[in-house]
């Protein structure tokens, strides 16, 4: 997705430790129109999959997931990072380690919102080691739902999350795949 | 907003302690098309206000805020509930007490994403005591930005948050105002 890549080059900040900060348009401030286009792009790529539900994790996954849900007219379920006082009853849950924040969270989804006949598309804003996606796949497996694909806005392709998921047979579509941050510049896969 | 009220009556669950659970369409599972309509409705109500930025708090505020941002073609900024490892630098922040979860959070917004010439619309999914909105107003004040209005999807009008904000001179628009939960039924303001 060329306009996304252009935006990353223009506004993304490369920080020490291979951290890419895109909080001016993706995950703190959100460019609503760009996010809409992101939703349309995922919907186009997964158009033939008869998706019935979108899964993501709070908070940064919600915006892209919602725009895909809107494009496909299906509900979006976001896993919560801890049981709130309101989230009683039975939940599917999985442990997710965040390397960025260096914390382990339990993410959970109310069992009412995931069924064995669901065709699930997992959406997230970022993927590096793929921990969040693996947690959501585990949750879908608990519900015996079928994961038909994974859509990632920005994949750090030099880390092993995407490779592991693809080798496990999952279809993973990333709108921007980062090959490296050499010289504090973002280089995408397939570029010279 | 009649179809929202119908949906609350149909799918909302009244729990002990005046808790309304609407997690099947608003804040755990999200009905994408209903959320789009919610965004359109807020955009219509605040159409003349020359809004430049939408403010909300993670996580449940993100979906309605994003749909308003999309309708008005302005950026959405969501306050984060704790400083992440990535959110370094200078932030505006305020304390917000959640009665539902019985915890106090610090919510923060990177100073880059709020300017003195901003015309801010605050959006949130729920308002009871108005703690989250007050925190966002405080943050906007720190930036010397102008809060032109507050849009709430569901207001518990029998609690004092909305009244306090309106008495302080703020324009507050709520799409569904709950008068009471008598006999485990949802009763809206203005109904018999």
UniProtKB/TrEMBL annotation, chains A, B:
Organism (species): Ligilactobacillus equi DPC 6820
Main localization (coarse): cytoplasm
PANTHER family: HYPOXANTHINE/GUANINE PHOSPHORIBOSYLTRANSFERASE, XANTHINE PHOSPHORIBOSYLTRANSFERASE
Annotated positions binding 5-phospho-alpha-D-ribose 1-diphosphate: 128-132
Record pathway: Purine metabolism; XMP biosynthesis via salvage pathway; XMP from xanthine: step 1/1
Gene: xpt
Subcellular location: Cytoplasm
Entry binding sites for xanthine: 20, 27, 156
GO BP annotations listed: purine ribonucleoside salvage; xanthine metabolic process; XMP salvage
UniProt KW Oxidoreductase keyword: no
Family: Belongs to the purine/pyrimidine phosphoribosyltransferase family. Xpt subfamily.
Domain (Phosphoribosyltransferase) ranges: 43-157
Subunit architecture: Homodimer.
InterPro entries: PRTase-like (IPR029057), PRTase_dom (IPR000836), Pur/Pyrimidine_PRTase (IPR050118), Xanthine_PRibTrfase (IPR010079)
One GO CC annotation: cytoplasm
Catalytic activity of the protein: XMP + diphosphate = xanthine + 5-phospho-alpha-D-ribose 1-diphosphate
Keyword Glycosyltransferase (UniProt): yes
The entry's keywords: Cytoplasm, Glycosyltransferase, Purine salvage, Transferase
EC code: 2.4.2.22
GO molecular function, one term: xanthine phosphoribosyltransferase activity
Purpose: Converts the preformed base xanthine, a product of nucleic acid breakdown, to xanthosine 5'-monophosphate (XMP), so it can be reused for RNA or DNA synthesis.
Protein name in UniProt: Xanthine phosphoribosyltransferase
